[in-house]
Amino acid sequence: MPITRRAMLALPLFLAIRPATAQEPLSWLPAVKRGEVVALLRHALAPGTGDPEGFRLGDCSTQRNLSPAGRDQARAIGARLRDIGLEKAGVFSSQWCRCLDTARLLDLGEVKELPALNSFFADPGRRSVQTRELDTWLAAQTSAKPRILVTHQVNITALTGIVPASGELVIVSRLSGASPRLVGTARLA
Questions:
Q1: Which residue, among 86, 83, 47, has the nearest Cα to 171 in the 3D structure?
Q2: Distance CA 28, CA 32 (A)
Q3: Whether 184 contacts 36, CB under 8 Å
Q4: Per the structure, how many domains does the chain have?
Q5: What tens digit of pLDDT does each residue of 70-117 get?
Q6: Of 104, 121, 132, 151, which has the fewest CB atoms closer than 10 Å, so is most exposed?
């Protein structure tokens, strides 16, 4: 079977990845509450891979969306975060419907779209530029409030080397000019 151009472009991405670590204790929670670290959240369950041919931002009918189980998962993650003391957060999201829906269903605060969190799965050539934009955004955050960023597996993997499951949190420090330091991971639902 010949290797496709798309597979060859994605190869460097997959050489540096590792699965998410086993669930860490909630020792990261105080740092998230103080805004010292950021929680990256892979969108909740959305069966399939990528998006259908011709998908469009802003038109959920053209995209891969959350399943009913994914909607329940997003609500459960938000409920669990509130149960452990994270009542409100600055919530930022990719512009893809599955991420926006996940972010809204968390019910932790106003959701703001952040294009640096958009998927580059269909355009792996954007990986380095977009990852640099996200890293720059992270480093520029100065307020001491919790932040949750809802995004895609490829974005989290490019930034951290971690391959999160759907609905998994990856908690990282905010460092400019260096790879963010992994603080922990958590599966809350």
A1: 86
A2: 6
A3: no
A4: 1
A5: 999 999 999 999 999 999 999 999 999 999 999 999 999 999 999 999
A6: 132
Instruction: Show the tokens assigned to 42.
Output: 């892979």
Q: Which two tokens stand for residue 67?
A: 């399943």
- CA 88 to chain centroid: 18
| CB-based burial label for 173 (10 Å; 0-12, 13-18, 19+) | middle
Q: What is the pLDDT of residues 159-169, one digit of tens each?
A: 889 999 999 99
CA dihedral 16, 73, 82, 33 (to 10 degrees): 10
Question: What residues make up the domain containing 40?
Answer: 5-48+57-187
What is the spatial distance between Cα 22 and Cα 88, in angstroms, rounded to a whole number?
26
Nearest to 103 by CA among 146, 94, 145, 188: 94
pTM of the model: 0.86
| Paired tokens of 109 | 């605060």
What would the 3-class secondary structure string for 41-63 be?
A: EECCCCCCCCCCCCCECCEHHHC
* CATH number, position 159: 3.40.50.1240
